[in-house]
Each structure stands twice: as structure tokens, then as C-alpha cells.
């Protein structure tokens, strides 16, 4: 049974930083691309950042230079470092695997 559990969200002031984590269990985690998606209220879900099994990363234009995605396959954990938070970054953040599994999300609120 595959399970993804996000943590690290919270309420912060604009300009501050957050570090999100996604703990993965239940399958061969390292073989797949992993990604962080986010969804603001009233908006569609967007892929903020992705990392493949080789460590190659890609980012949405809106987060380039502020978000850093990384993975630790030994710890079965995906990370998202978010710097210089903006109010537009508020929303639910989800981690997902390339074969279609999703976490329940962690909320980020920037004021």
C-alpha cells in the first residue's frame, strides 16, 4: 500500500521561508519522478517542481529561483524548500509520484 505524507506547511509572513517534506512508503520509491503540486483556492492545481530519478529538476516559471526540490532516496523522502514566500504562494501543497500516487496535502498560508 503506497502512502505519501506531507508535512512542514504553516502560516508565515511574506518573505519568510518554509521547508516541506513528503515521506513515502509502500513501493520502490526511487524509480519514479516525483513532484510537488500546489492549488490555491479557486484555482486549478499546478505542478510547482519536479525531480526525476537522476536528480534532474524542473520548476514552474512562477517559482524559479525561490523553490528548490530535492529527494533523499535512502530516507524515502521528498523535500521542497521555499524561500521569499509571496501571498500568491498560499494554497495546499501536494507531493505526487510519477506513477500516480498523491499525498493528502499540507497547507501553506502567506500573509
| Helix content estimate | under 10%
Distance between the termini: 37 Å
* Spatial shape: globular
- The quaternary structure here is single chain
Tell me the structural class: mainly beta
Number of helices: 0
Major beta sheet, strand line-up: 2-10-9-4-5-6
Walkthrough of the structure:
- By secondary structure, the protein is an all-beta fold.
- Helices cover about 0% and strands about 50% of the residues.
- It has no helices and 10 strands.
- The protein has strands at about 5, 10, 20-25, 35-40, 45-50, 55-60, 65-70, 75-80, 90-95, 105-110.
- The protein has a 6-stranded mixed β-sheet with strand order 2-10-9-4-5-6, with no helix packed on it. The chain has a 4-stranded antiparallel β-sheet with strand order 1-3-8-7, with no helix packed on it.
- It is globular.
Layout of helices and strands:
Blueprint: E1 3-7, E2 10-12, E3 18-25, E4 34-39, E5 46-51, E6 57-59, E7 67-72, E8 77-82, E9 91-97, E10 106-110
Parallel strand pairs: 2-10
Antiparallel strand pairs: 1-3, 3-8, 4-5, 4-9, 5-6, 7-8, 9-10
Give a brief description.
With 111 residues, the chain is mainly β. It has strands at residues 3-7, 10-12, 18-25, 34-39, 46-51, 57-59, 67-72, 77-82, 91-97, 106-110.
Amino acid at each position: 500500500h503506497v502512502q505519501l505524507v506531507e508535512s512542514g506547511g504553516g502560516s508565515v509572513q511574506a518573505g519568510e521561508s518554509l521547508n516541506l517534506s513528503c515521506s513515502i512508503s509502500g513501493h520502490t520509491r526511487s524509480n519514479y519522478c516525483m513532484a510537488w503540486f500546489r492549488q490555491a483556492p479557486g484555482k486549478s492545481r499546478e505542478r510547482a517542481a519536479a525531480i526525476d530519478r537522476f536528480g534532474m529538476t524542473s520548476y514552474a516559471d512562477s517559482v524559479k529561483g525561490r523553490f528548490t526540490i530535492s529527494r533523499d532516496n535512502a530516507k524515502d523522502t521528498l523535500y521542497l524548500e521555499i524561500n521569499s514566500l509571496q501571498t500568491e504562494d498560499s494554497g495546499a501543497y501536494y507531493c505526487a509520484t510519477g506513477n500516480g500516487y498523491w499525498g493528502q496535502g499540507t497547507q501553506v498560508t502567506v500573509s
